[in-house]
Specification:
- By secondary structure, the protein is of the alpha/beta class.
- The chain has one domain: Rossmann fold, CATH 3.40.50.1240.
- Helices cover 35% and strands 19% of the residues.
- The chain contains 5 helices and 6 strands, in the order βααβαβαβαββ.
- The relative contact order is 0.23.
């Protein structure tokens, strides 16, 4: 049985400012850097990863690079792990009105010019499948984004209802797999 440690990037300037980021090049805050270090220490203590893959966006790459100061793994970048496109919401506060948004079917809604979570799930699911095949029975760390992790939860479990919220910054979703079949997904309370 292999394990994929799905990690959300540390706090970014967009998270701190509570805005949908306008560009992929938004960096981590000092808090986000510390979060990455704490998560790396937790992973090193509890798991034995052999591979590290991250989104191409700066905040995910920085999280992976900081984690890798401790983990010392081969690090690859996979553009399919990039965050959901928020279209016209890019650069706007999180609490901006979202016409047509239905909280009971949130995965089907897209901001104008953006992606639905269903579309994100198709893209990132293919990336996760590739990583799982490559890792085999080894542990692997996958650093991405909040919306991506919601979509990956759906890809792995078939369920949109849980976790039903965005994983906290530098939080971990543990996915067990066997020969390309996903067996379990658990949102870890630690680190």
């Amino acid at each position: 049985m292999g394990r994929l440690l799905l990690v959300r990037h540390g706090e970014s300037e967009g998270n701190r400012d509570r805005v949908f980021t306008e560009t992929p090049e938004v960096p981590l805050t000092p808090i986000g850097q510390d979060q990455a270090r704490v998560t790396a220490a937790y992973i090193r203590e509890h798991y034995a990863p052999e591979l590290l893959v991250s989104s191409s966006y700066l905040r995910a790459r920085q999280t992976a690079e900081i984690m890798n100061e401790l983990l010392r793994l081969p690090h690859e970048v996979d553009d399919d792990l990039r965050e959901r496109s928020y279209g016209v919401l890019a650069g706007k506060p999180y609490d901006t009105a979202r016409p047509g948004f239905d909280p009971h079917n949130y995965w089907r809604w897209a901001p104008p010019g953006g992606e639905t979570l269903e579309e994100v799930a198709a893209r990132v699911g293919r990336a996760l499948d590739r990583i799982a095949r490559r890792a085999g029975v080894a542990d692997a760390v996958v650093v991405s984004h909040g919306g991506v992790m919601m979509a990956l939860w759906r890809h792995v479990t078939g369920d949109w209802a849980r976790p039903g919220r965005v994983v906290r910054n530098a939080g971990i979703l543990l996915v067990e797999h066997d020969g390309g079949c996903y067996r379990a997904a658990t949102l870890l309370d630690s680190p």
